[in-house]
Every structure is written in structure tokens, then in C-alpha cells.
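Section 3.1: Structural characterization of target chains.
Under the original work plan, the team committed to producing a structural model for every single-chain target entering the pipeline before any wet-lab resources were allocated. The record below documents one such target. The sequence was received from the expression subgroup and is listed exactly as submitted; it comprises 243 residues.
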Amino acid sequence: MRILVVSDIHANIDAFEAVLSDSRQDRDAIYCLGDLVGYGPDPDACVSLAAEVCDATLAGNHDLAACRRMDMSSFSTHARQAMEWTRSNLSSETIAFLETLPVSAEKNGILLSHGSPADPVWGYILSCEDAAEAFAALKCSICLFGHTHVPSAFVSISDDPSKIKIEYGEPGHILKTGTGSLLLNPGSVGFPRDAADAHASDSERRAAARYAVFDDKAETWEFKRVEYDLRSTVKRMRKAGLW
């Protein structure tokens, strides 16, 4: 089965639709690793589409805050301001859906987690030290996670943290998943943070969305990237005071 893996959509419907269109001939299922809302201008549209097409959906910290399952005390100023707008612009259907979502789940022997297995809500995995803590908490051999907005893979073939290998998600790079333990991050659909694809005012016409495809039969993970026009999203963000 080929699984489209998306994360950190952050209320960017144009990016989400671009990923679904780009992957439509290359998937049998869709897993979403959380943060459907926050930052972007289209929370209801993104949640509605995810509810329609995703076979598994997690809640991220922004989703939990949006439906008031957590407060915003740990949010940055920018994230808190965006969340205040988001909370004021959610339909009752969106809130009800977000209230049902778990922060982690197991699917076919694979752990899905918004953040690190050691802390599914807030845990970042950005370094070998972060990965070692995550591997210690991992009960499966593979964890698919998000939260960092950075497409990346952490590979462990022993219990020695110094031997953890980090690979960053160059588009088209295929990683074999049949050996060792792995922590795999598809990157962010809505607002990538890797240097090559982070959104900027001079790249609105050709913005990028990041995702991945996991093939459990072939035992491969492929980093993917699709370009789309961000200008209409930016226009809506500016109108809402989010940009």
C-alpha cells in the first residue's frame, strides 16, 4: 500500500489541494499527522477536506488549542495571535471534528505522532539527542511524525545514540525502511521551514508544499515536493491580519 503522508497543513487550502492533486495517481491511503489549522486563513476548508479524504488524522498542538483542549500559554506571540483569529473563525462542525482527534495512533504496526513519541504534542525532533529520546520511547520500528516543518529522517541501527544517522528530505530522495528503527517527517504542507522552501515575499508565485509517500510493501519512503501559487493565500492572510 502506498500511503500519502502529510503534516502541518496549517489552514493553507491551496497547498493542501496542490499536494492532493500532485499525488492522486500515487496513493492508496492518506495519513495526516496534525496541525490542520493555525497560521493560515482557511481552517474550515482544510479540516473539511481532511475529514473527507484522510484515512487517519491526528491533532497537533494548534488543533488542540483551536478547539480549546489546551490553552495558548506555550505559544509564540505570532502563533497566539493567529490562533486567536482561528478560534474566532471556526465553524461548529470544525470544532467538533478537532475535538475527536488523537495526538498519536498506531496503524499497521507504525506509530503516527504529531511530535516526538516521547512527547506527542510538543516534542521536537531536530537533533540526534532529540532522536535518541524519541527512539527510547518508541515501541514500534517506525514512527511518522511532524511538528518541526522540516522534512527529515532519523535512522538508528543500534542502541548507540552516537550512531543515529540524519537525512534531510531532498525531493525525490528514496529511503529504504526495512532495516533499523526510523523516525520519518514529511515536512510541512502549508508552511515549510527548511531553508530551500520556506515561504518569503519574493517567492509567492512559486511556493512549495512538502509531503512524502510511504510504501509499506516495497519498504520505501520518498520525500516529495510540489510548487503552487501562494498569492491568493497571502491575499486572504493579509485581509485577516495573518501575514
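The first strand starts at residue 2 and ends at 6.
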